[in-house]
Amino acid sequence: MRNLPSELIEDILRRLPVKSLKRFRSVAKAWCSLIDSDRFIKMHLRHSLTSLSNRHLITGGAGAHAVKPPFDCKSGDMISYSCNGIFLLMSDPPVLWNPFSREYRVLPDCPVEYAATAAECYCNKAGYEFGYDSRNDDYKVIRVLDFRHKITHAPMANETKIYSLKSNSWRRIEPLPYPLLFLRLNWRVHVNGVLHTLVPDPDNVYGASIMCFSFETERRYQMLLPRRIRIKGFDVSLDVTGGCLSVVCNNLDMVVVWVMKEYGVNDSWVKLVSVTPPVFEGNDYVKPLVYSKEGGRVLLLGKTLFWYDLRNQSVDYVFIEGLPFVFYAEACVESLVSLGGEIKNWGCEKEKRKDKTTKKRDDFLSKGFKLVL
Amino acid sequence: MAAETGTPTTLTLKSNDDELFSVAESAAILSVTIRNMVEDGCAGGVIPLDNVDGKTLASVITYMNGISAIPADEEKKKSYRDKFLSDKDFETLADMVLAANYLNMSCLMDAVSAKIAQVMEKKSVGWVRRKFGIENDYTPEEEAAVKEEHKWTFEGVETDDDN
């Protein structure tokens, strides 16, 4: 038996996965308060992010959730990218979900305000995105409703609302200028509390630039593509690689990945990967996922998963049993981030208050699909 | 000094149970605490380390010598650290983290804390209480309630072997 000072215990605990930490809340009241504290939750997340530990790939097959959420959802409902271990399930109503702590929160109703819905127009399925506002330490969800003319299908109106987890309410903001729905895969790029998408830009030499939406300021701005990029003849998409904004230029003959090493600094774009067959099998879709722990390799998803060695420029295929033939993968870090349930205060522990919409259930998470990196 | 004579400077460290150890200065200054003493010129005689016992200090010195013999190659250093810690039990690891903290050796502290976390990961609540000397201040009802909140985290816990 050793009595370690509390700062050394904290230093040990911040390295543990969420499951162990949730179990060790039962050790003593002081451990419970520590593990539930906002300070510790942030410290734990920061450690996981900087040391590249507690990372997972969440994978899903076509139309199916390999990791079954603990609440009712239709198989067609999409799961978002992850932000600090939280996912957004785009069901009706949408749900914020931390699969690692098994906490989730069903978002409150958000009425449609646009009035001219009746006769001449229709509304597409709502588009949802979410992200983290570090300035206000808040998770936010955007809902975009895109109203179109019944006959001409011309855009008629766009109603954009934003939900804040802290206030647990929706409010209207200035409409996003591009219908999220039709570019939705492209909006799936969340870096530094900012959403990114590629937009046509006739004034730009490449004919395209990066549109950004900041969750902190709730404003839009534009960013330039890398200076020496070649996009003619390529499918161009945005992505996140090891926490950095990246541009993937892909055709069947070549994949080039650029990353913005320092967010917002245009001179920091570097060409990270440039690979041609037969080193890898060409595919119409390539997505960079994560760096290896020692940093020398990047995990890419094409037809299958493969590690790309940055030094040797060689490829190592990864085979994972049980994955469907066609699948999707998303890298994420596990976290204790709470979705706003009441944190137990042991001074008044008799109170069994729990927010109605914040629940925990224990009947899911198929292990085989939650891969530890 | 060292360079002129060709023999490396040696320091003498004294544990709190009065054991004396000789160690090359170049290895010992991995400890910021010792390096500061050397820089302040307090390292002429014996350096007393009041918070470290002989057994732990011997182990720390083995580590100092081992790691400083490895050239600047982070992967090799990492595999040395992994091997060095692989056979240590919890008590030894706890003593080492205290020593590393006192000696201000961040690389050792980081490695030992990570190792302790790895050992703890699948352990039971009872094991953690015993090893860390923590008193259970929950009433049985409270404890049952806390456990109930995260019942799923008690699946796959190792049976206690007290190692």
UniProtKB/TrEMBL annotation, chain A:
Top-rank taxon, per record: Eukaryota
Pfam families assigned:
F-box, FBA_1
The record, for PROSITE patterns, names: FBOX
F-box domain residues are 1-44
The record's section on PANTHER family has: BNACNNG10540D PROTEIN, F-BOX PROTEIN CPR30-LIKE
Q: What name does UniProt use for this protein?
A: F-box domain-containing protein
Organism whose genome encodes this protein: Erythranthe guttata (Yellow monkey flower)
UniProtKB/TrEMBL annotation, chain B:
Keyword Chaperone attributed = no
> Which InterPro entries does the protein's record reference?
SKP1, SKP1-like, SKP1-like_dim_sf, SKP1/BTB/POZ_sf, Skp1_comp_dimer, Skp1_comp_POZ
**Protein family per UniProt:** Belongs to the SKP1 family.
What is this protein identified as?
Answer: SKP1-like protein
Report the residue ranges that make up the SKP1 component POZ domain in this protein: 11-65
Pathway per its UniProt entry is: Protein modification; protein ubiquitination
Taxonomic lineage of this organism? Eukaryota, Viridiplantae, Streptophyta, Embryophyta, Tracheophyta
Q: What are the entry keywords?
A: Ubl conjugation pathway
- Asked if the keyword Ubl conjugation belongs to this entry, the reply reads no
